[in-house]
Amino acid sequence: MKKLNLKKNCYKGKLIVFEGADGSGKTTLLELASNYLSSKNIKHIKIKMPSDFVRNNPIFTAYDNSVDDSVRKNINLTDLTIFVSGDRLLTLNSIIIPALMKENYVLCDRYCYTGYVRSTNNLIQKISNRFIKPDVVFLSSAKPSTLKARVKARKSEKYNYYNEEDVKQQIKKFDFLAKKCNFEIIDTEKSLAENIKKLHEILNKLL
Question: Domains of the chain, with CATH numbers?
Fold first, then answer.
């Protein structure tokens, strides 16, 4: 894997990204961050990538919600990642950047890093380098066994296909990016109080 070279955020607003494997707790951290910014009366918006347009696409749904590997093998992951990356770019240019221009904080659930971790094709890297660099990236972390238990506890995903080896590879790639791109790692196996304290300390540096 190569380090991504994202564009500098030249806008007055702040871009805060939450990344991690499924079940790592990134969405929970995002909500905690949103609550904290609200308590400080800081204008912000919450974005989830990919958009509902992609999430409701039958091909994406077939891949993401499959109950076995046979369906997934018939869908080219690189092609799917290009489709999702394009959606992320559209969201960046049509929603995120205008919000940053208005001095808003933007909290983003997943970003281009997810696509890069899931498919390291050179074309994906070129697309990813068109994104702007976040002011901070929170990488939520947990043991593979914990990730699986959390995902399987969700009613909507309980019976979905789950590839443990693929998840372990994602963790390794996220760890690589964390070192190269200076992500803030939050171990969600620790107590909620500890995570909130660390989250607030990092956010305070941006305020």
Answer: 17-204 (3.40.50.300)
